[in-house]
Amino acid sequence: AQSVSQHNHHVILSEAASLELGCNYSYGGTVNLFWYVQYPGQHLQLLLKYFSGDPLVKGIKGFEAEFIKSKFSFNLRKPSVQWSDTAEYFCAVTGLLYNQGGKLIFGQGTELSVKP
Amino acid sequence: DTGVSQNPRHKITKRGQNVTFRCDPISEHNRLYWYRQTLGQGPEFLTYFQNEAQLEKSRLLSDRFSAERPKGSFSTLEIQRTEQGDSAMYLCASSPTASGSYNEQFFGPGTRLTVL
After folding, report:
1. Which chain A residue has its CA at the smallest distance from B37's CA?
2. Per-residue pLDDT averaged across B74-86, rounded?
């Protein structure tokens, strides 16, 4: 079955600390991988995406993620978090086949709280 | 850029009543998706449309749920005989693709349904 697992449900960090959020997926075939972010009171927005090529992808606001195919992982990182990074983060996967429709399979989310 | 809009933003109803939600996708986006998100979980895929054709429905979508996208523009999601377990955030997303390759999904703000 297709699934995405995020290891941390709630992470609390102080400003300037480094961040790494884990994401593992189970999906047959070639996939696209995403991280979405939901800031308090706002809707889901794309943080970064991996389609192919360089497994280290950079997104908005200094975030990056590394795709490790052998580990079925797509961990999100940021060297130094800010209070404004407080949000919920979702890892998601979709298959590339046309009949898979592009539907996203999401992980359960990680709530990040950054203390000023 | 108006983005994806959803109405209403909040809906409170009594068990057994019918409710209908509307989603207006970004203009000219071919694909439209519905997801459901419950507290502490990531969004779960419900169904999607390619233009006016409903191409896939999740097993989560019971017979009480029906979705339409007449003329390939806005979409409605109706829930008949609501149950307390239907309480959730209902999210709509759209993407521009009509081919086998993935395009980014843009999410709306969601409709929060509370069934009393």
Report:
1. A108
2. 97
